[in-house]
Amino acid sequence: MATHELIANPDTVHWGFYDASLEPVMRIRSGDTLEVHTESGREEYLAELGTRASRNLRDILAQVPQELGPHIMTGPVAVEDAQPGDVLEVRIHEVKTRYDWGYNAIRPMMGGLPEDFPYTRAVIVDLDLEAQTGDWGAGVKVPLRPYFGNFGVAPPPAVGRVGSYPPSAWGGNLDNKELISGSIAYFPIFNEGALFSVGDGHGCQGDGEACLTAIETGLSGTMEIIVRKDLQLENPRAETDTHYILMGFDPILDNAAKMALRETIQFLGELRGMSRDDAYTLCSLAVDLRVTQIVNGVKGVHAMLPKSLFT
């Protein structure tokens, strides 16, 4: 299978939205590998960054219109033979940081405590790529654990253009820190070609993403893209070496938790033929519900189901 390199530049990104009407910037086959290099940044940081900001980032900020959301999305990539009703399997072989800097920001009326922090504060974070830490200051260095916060397929055509902020059935702003190197994500496909996009590089993030942002930075990722015609999904799923991950999204956190539980109960029925009663009980005994993020309008909860239960 072929390997394709996709570099974020003004011709290969869309800023702040997903849309089924976008023309693909690249076409690949099922089973091909995609090497993607993304950008993150804002114009107000360029003066402080100086030459540390790439030429491509500067050109994107100057030339590409931002609509609806803040995320610079690379793509979309069309996958041959992908049809509505199929599933796109994204095997994330490697994710690594591209640059020695990232940023974190508080924005007024946003984040987990908007009433407590009604102002803007932005910090440029120095990244030590050898030690894999971010220098937060005050004697604190946070360990890097890079992953893409925002990726998925185009939404159904009837939905139209949607902002990149909320997670949904097509993926989008999942902000799930488990989706690091070695993980696999699965997305239901709504359009011919799937129209896969990726962005929102995170150097690291805590569950919840409390202040609104992680360490936002440019990433490089190597992903194997596979069309699955033997699966049917209504919502994204994922897995790591140790866990199956089922997801829930809703503006109300309780409802997001209920969705994650229902997705897990359904999955256990598919995987092991469990009754709903048995699956529900197992969720109480062995499944961890984690708050993915509370800052994107539509909140996220992910259920961590250990694979060790079935070995």
Summarize model confidence as the mean pLDDT.
97
Radius of gyration: 19 Å
Annotation field: number of helices: 4
Give me the strand/helix succession. Answer: EEEEEHHEEEEEEEEEEEEEEEHHEE
Query: What distance lies between the first and last C-alpha atoms, to the nearest angstrom?
Result: 32 Å
Largest sheet: 9 strands, mixed
Q: Specify the structural class.
A: mainly beta
Helical content band:
10-25%
Shape: globular
Assembly annotation: single chain
How many strand units? 22
The stretches of 5 or more residues where confidence is low (pLDDT under 50) are: none
Q: Give me the side-by-side strand order of the main sheet.
A: 1-5-18-7-16-19-20-22-21
Strand content: 35-45%
Architecture overview:
The chain is mainly β and 311 residues long. The protein has four helices and 22 strands. The protein has helices at 46-49, 55-63, 253-272, 276-286, and strands at 3-7, 13-15, 17-18, 26-28, 33-37, 72-79, 87-97, 101-106, 121-128, 133-137, 140-143, 147-152, 162-163, 167-168, 171-172, 184-188, 196-202, 219-228, 237-239, 243-250, 288-293, 299-306. The protein has a nine-stranded mixed β-sheet with strand order 1-5-18-7-16-19-20-22-21. Helix 3 packs across helix 4. The longest helix is centred in the C-terminal third of the chain and has 20 residues, at 253-272.
Structural features:
mainly beta, seven-stranded mixed beta sheet, 22 strands, 311 residues
Write the layout of secondary structure elements.
Blueprint: E1 3-7, E2 13-15, E3 17-18, E4 26-28, E5 33-37, H1 46-49, H2 55-63, E6 72-79, E7 87-97, E8 101-106, E9 121-128, E10 133-137, E11 140-143, E12 147-152, E13 162-163, E14 167-168, E15 171-172, E16 184-188, E17 196-202, E18 219-228, E19 237-239, E20 243-250, H3 253-272, H4 276-286, E21 288-293, E22 299-306
Parallel strand pairs: 1-5, 4-6
Antiparallel strand pairs: 2-6, 3-13, 5-18, 6-17, 7-16, 7-18, 8-9, 9-10, 10-11, 12-15, 12-17, 14-15, 16-19, 19-20, 20-22, 21-22
Helix pairs in contact: 3-4
